[in-house]
């Protein structure tokens, strides 16, 4: 992970540098800055995090060999300064200069304007106030000073909140700062799950919450944690102690939860400088473990983590294990998915750290063989808190399992023939959880039929080979933010280049992409009004992407839960949403069993198709596929050569350079692929595709040349700009509105768009 760092200077002259003590650069009090998007990527796509350092000056010193070295002069205490030596990066530039402040003090500024400036010496102020204390302060002492300063400011917002401003929240005893945040966010009333869960969580109970997708479960568990932290501020003499652990199944979801919490925390005083009153850290796979370790060393109040990476860090760090043993809140978000992800072992191990001694000692000798025991045996003197609260939330938790949470009787529901290996694992987890509450509150608000009321579902039945065509039709016909779920990574790798060739703005998201790329693609999708994300189920759970207009099940999922979560990426927070199933004959059985699991018939209406557009779209797809096939050959060749190069390197043998070419990444945009487009055939096909893409798409019966004639007169649409932006003669109805008119009973579909269109066209 790349971290950008920014120096901010507002310090008086630091005095003779010889009098300063020196700290390693990583020990300086860097502060993480909130970026505009949750992934924190810059325009170049490289930066994952921005850190800022206040009160710092830079001086350049020459060592004996004449090399220039930067020295940061940093304020650690009000009256104490320290330096951190860093080597300038090649070509890096920087100089320090001083200016007068209003009160006549000289202020040193760090800049990056060149190292050969004449003002270098001015970073040193003879008037520097030195305590005479040569001892290097520890980082926690730096924080101590910070915290004392911040605390005075932090009382802002603690005064009582006027409940008449937010009457529907008045019965929920949240800290006034949170009420102010909710008011600023425009959350005028709690969602149903919040209204039910918050009072119970705030009363100190354990809660298992099941509620539909997009219903605000994150705040249902997070607000009680934040409220507790605001009401029980940390001691000012220590570094932050971890009070809450939130475990999430996917990296994207974990980052989103961090973002969600920070939005609430920072809402009240967005302009406030200094460390936040509550600090939220994250530990997820795919990003630098070192950086994450540093955040942990520095201390945070709430940690959001994926189990795999967290367990890796725990194994290497007894202090972290001890902190987790002592947490006040444990949250498992989307517990069922965590187990599906194959993270059961890590999840179970982490959960075991939070067990009370009385339970652990009951386990006897077998425990000593256990890897968790081995990893944490040095922590015997640290005992888990007796007042820890556990919150489990998901949109899908089977009724059987919910009962087990209540009864905590292992195996009470086992033997049920529907019980799968996954369900057994979940039951094992339930058994492992040491609820402090004898009777955890189970709140089940899951909707009938699984999906939310604001979701409209529809389907297109077609032959397997025409799914691409109907997806293309749908994306053109209903512009908007669409999330397309595909059953395999190979499927995504086939579709993305195809749609890129068709100039549809598509981005892939799957587990084999680098984490950086995953976040980048998500960000692009989030910020593009008509963007299309083609994803595996890695995007199915929890992601709260604003205004996803459509979810398309290009391949149907295997389980009802996956269908619920995928479809739940749209129709969130009481907004309308639309889900489309592309169903081939081969999918029929899966569809039937899916609907049966959801307790429904196949009562899904067909999406009306305006068939006049299909022949031209079909032709475009045919040519794009041919290009893709030809390019795929070149890509594969590159891939093989790359493999050859790596194998040769591994064996330490030389290979004829003519046998090698630059490697290729199967997920790289096609346009960037090496050698692609060289062959004459591809050039010809691309010209043909360009020509086809330039041809207007006109509905049957429409005369583009004579808009006032033809069987479909479009002059009115043209004049009022009511018509469709790309499909001439089509209305601009949304997919959501469209299916109100759809017929329930559909005609049998044929493989050709031509015949089908006659049957279905309204
Ligand atoms: N009280 C509220 N009023 C209005 N909007 C809210 C409220 N609480 C949360 N939201 C918003 O609702 C959206 C969905 O919330 P969240 O992501 O927590 O849903 P969820 O139930 O966890 O969904 P999923 O099951 O898919 O993970 C978010 O954008 C959130 O900001």
UniProtKB/TrEMBL annotation:
Species per Swiss-Prot/TrEMBL record: Tremella mesenterica
Domain notes: The Q motif is unique to and characteristic of the DEAD box family of RNA helicases and controls ATP binding and hydrolysis.
Bias (Basic and acidic residues) ranges: 753-762
Catalytic activity: ATP + H2O = ADP + phosphate + H(+)
Protein location: Nucleus, Nucleolus
Family as reported in the entry's similarity comment: Belongs to the DEAD box helicase family.
Domain Helicase C-terminal: from-to ranges: 468-613
Pfam families on file: DEAD (PF00270), Helicase_C (PF00271)
An individual GO BP term: rRNA processing
Name of the protein in its database record: ATP-dependent RNA helicase
Presence of the UniProt keyword Transcription in the record: no
Superkingdom of origin: Eukaryota
Disordered: region residues: 1-21, 85-104, 743-762
SUPFAM superfamilies given in the database record: P-loop containing nucleoside triphosphate hydrolases
InterPro entries assigned: DEAD/DEAH_box_helicase_dom, Helicase_ATP-bd, Helicase_C-like, P-loop_NTPase, RNA-helicase_DEAD-box_CS, RNA_helicase_DEAD_Q_motif
EC number assigned by the record: 3.6.4.13
Keyword Transferase listed: no
Record-annotated DEAD-box RNA helicase Q domain positions: 167-195
Domain Helicase ATP-binding: 198-415
Upper taxonomic lineage: Eukaryota, Fungi, Dikarya, Basidiomycota, Agaricomycotina
Top enzyme category: hydrolase
Chain ranges for the short sequence motif Q motif as given in the UniProt record: 167-195
């Amino acid at each position: 992970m790349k971290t950008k760092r920014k120096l901010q200077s507002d310090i008086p002259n630091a005095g003779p540098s010889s009098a300063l003590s020196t700290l390693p650069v990583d020990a300086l009090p860097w502060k993480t800055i909130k970026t505009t998007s949750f992934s924190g990527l810059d325009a170049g796509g490289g930066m994952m995090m921005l850190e800022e350092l206040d009160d710092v000056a830079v001086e350049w010193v020459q060592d004996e060999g004449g090399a220039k070295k930067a020295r940061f002069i940093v304020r650690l205490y009000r009256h104490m300064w320290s330096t951190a030596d860093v080597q300038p990066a090649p070509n890096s530039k920087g100089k320090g200069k001083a200016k007068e402040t209003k009160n006549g003090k000289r202020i040193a500024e760090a800049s990056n304007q060149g190292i050969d400036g004449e003002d270098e010496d001015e970073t040193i102020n003879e008037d520097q106030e030195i305590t005479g204390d040569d001892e290097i302060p520890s980082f926690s002492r730096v924080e101590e000073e910070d915290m004392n300063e911040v605390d005075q400011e932090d009382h802002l917002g603690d005064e009582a909140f006027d409940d008449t401003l937010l009457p529907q929240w008045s019965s929920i005893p949240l800290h006034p700062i949170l009420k102010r945040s909710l008011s600023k966010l425009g959350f005028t009333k709690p969602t149903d799950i919040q209204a039910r869960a918050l009072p119970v969580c705030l009363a100190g109970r354990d809660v298992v919450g099941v509620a539909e997708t997009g219903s605000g479960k994150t705040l249902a568990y997070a607000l009680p944690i934040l409220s507790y932290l605001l009401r029980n501020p940390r001691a000012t003499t220590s570094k932050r102690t971890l009070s809450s652990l939130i475990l999430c199944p996917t990296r994207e979801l974990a980052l989103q939860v961090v973002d969600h919490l920070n939005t609430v925390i920072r809402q009240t005083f967005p302009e406030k400088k200094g460390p936040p009153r509550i600090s939220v850290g994250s530990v997820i796979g795919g990003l630098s473990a070192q950086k994450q370790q540093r955040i942990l060393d520095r201390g945070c109040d709430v940690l959001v983590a994926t189990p795999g990476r967290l367990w890796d860090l725990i194994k290497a760090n007894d202090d972290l294990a001890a902190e987790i043993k002592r947490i006040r809140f444990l949250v498992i978000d989307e517990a069922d998915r965590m187990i599906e992800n194959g993270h059961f072992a890590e999840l179970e191990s982490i959960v075991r750290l939070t067990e009370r001694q009385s339970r652990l000692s009951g386990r006897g000798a077998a425990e000593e063989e256990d890897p968790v025991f081995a990893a944490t045996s040095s922590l015997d003197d640290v005992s888990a808190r007796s007042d820890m609260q556990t919150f489990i939330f998901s949109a899908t938790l089977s009724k059987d399992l919910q009962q087990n949470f209540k009864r905590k009787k292992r195996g009470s529901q086992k033997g049920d023939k529907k019980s799968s290996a996954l369900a057994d694992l979940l039951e094992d987890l339930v058994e492992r959880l040491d609820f402090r509450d004898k009777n955890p509150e189970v709140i089940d608000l899951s909707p009938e039929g699984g999906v939310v009321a604001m979701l409209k579902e529809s389907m297109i039945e077609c032959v397997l080979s025409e799914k691409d065509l109907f997806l293309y039709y749908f994306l053109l016909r209903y512009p908007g933010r669409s999330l397309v779920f595909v059953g395999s990574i190979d499927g995504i790798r086939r579709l993305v280049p195809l749609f890129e060739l068709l100039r549809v703005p598509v981005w892939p998201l799957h587990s084999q992409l680098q984490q950086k790329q995953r976040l980048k693609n998500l960000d692009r999708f989030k910020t593009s009004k008509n963007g299309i994300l083609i994803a595996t189920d890695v995007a199915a759970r929890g992601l709260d992407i604003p205004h996803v207009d459509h979810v398309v099940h290009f391949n149907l999922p295997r389980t009802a839960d996956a269908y619920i979560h995928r479809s739940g990426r749209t129709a969130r927070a009481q907004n309308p949403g639309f889900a489309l199933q592309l169903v081939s004959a081969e999918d029929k059985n899966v569809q039937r069993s899916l609907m049966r699991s959801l307790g429904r018939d196949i009562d899904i209406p067909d999406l009306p198709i305006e068939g006049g557009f299909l022949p031209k779209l079909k032709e475009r797809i045919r040519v794009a596929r041919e290009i893709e096939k030809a390019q795929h050959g070149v890509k594969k060749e590159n891939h093989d050569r790359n493999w050859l190069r790596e194998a040769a390197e591994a064996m330490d043998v030389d290979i004829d350079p003519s046998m090698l070419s630059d490697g290729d990444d199967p997920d790289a945009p096609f346009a960037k692929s090496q050698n692609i487009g060289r062959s004459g055939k591809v050039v010809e096909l691309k010209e043909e595709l360009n020509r086809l893409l330039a041809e207007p798409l006109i509905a049957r019966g429409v005369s583009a040349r004579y808009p006032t004639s033809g069987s479909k007169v479009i002059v009115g649409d043209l004049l009022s700009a009511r018509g469709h932006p790309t499909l001439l003669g089509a209305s601009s109805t949304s997919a959501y509105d469209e299916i109100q008119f759809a017929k329930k009973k559909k005609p049998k579909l044929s493989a050709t768009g031509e015949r089908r269109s006659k049957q279905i066209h309204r």
